[in-house]
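HUMAN:
Could you generate one sequence with tokenized structure?
ASSISTANT:
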Amino acid sequence: MMEGVNAAILAGWSLAALLFAAALLAPLGGGLRRGAHLAGAAMMVAGAVTLYSHDVMALPQICAALIAGSAIGLALGRGMPRSALPSLMSGLIGQAGLAAVFIGGAALRDPHAFGLLDDATDRLRIEGAAAIGAAVACGAMACAGGAAVLWRGAAGRWHPLAAAAMLPATGGLVAAFIATPDLGRLLACVGAAWLAGWTVVKWALSWGTGPALALVGGFAGWSLAASAFLMENMPMAVAGGLAGAAGSLFGARLCGGAGRKGLADAGRRP
């Protein structure tokens, strides 16, 4: 589905992904302001690469949306206490997951516009269905995770059990959607993925905001990669994969994975 890749565009998306990963790590060392600056730089790079790599048909509307979003972000940043900025960043990152859910829904509604139909059978190709399912599932998990951080509370004992149950359930529903794509199965994927993302991030919050923020960023990165496949944008898929892998690994490490050690203990022997 994806053809030649411009090296400059690939480099731009890779830089955006690395900046996002650095923004996720910055709050862990107390660098909230640095993290916000890195996230802003990542968004600027991603926006510039997007405008450069596409024939833009609605530039005034895009510019208006950028100005409005910047104004809202500035107002929120000035009005919220410094300690709440990581939660705000998590919520904003979760919005990228919500966008992926809408992209997946649009692709299912009009697969011809996304080039996902098989020429011989005029049916949705299996790789297209897989990309839709992955985008919607990861996007819903990112959105739910962002909401869980924003409305944080004490993690219950049932959260690990619920997460262990909902993650395989989400995978099973995605597989069922791939086998027989329809709206009902897609909505079931959204519901299961929402519960999975909420419970996983709530569980991660017991280790602190940093691991939860990293997991939300990881989910959003994977949803971005799947959405990029739907839009036939290989550089964006690479950037999303980098951000997804970085966020997921950081979150797992900070939650005590790999020998139950965090980053501070990474250099110590067991």
User: Anything to note?
Assistant: Residues 108 and 132 are 7 Å apart (CA to CA). The mean pLDDT is 78. Residues 7-265 form one domain.
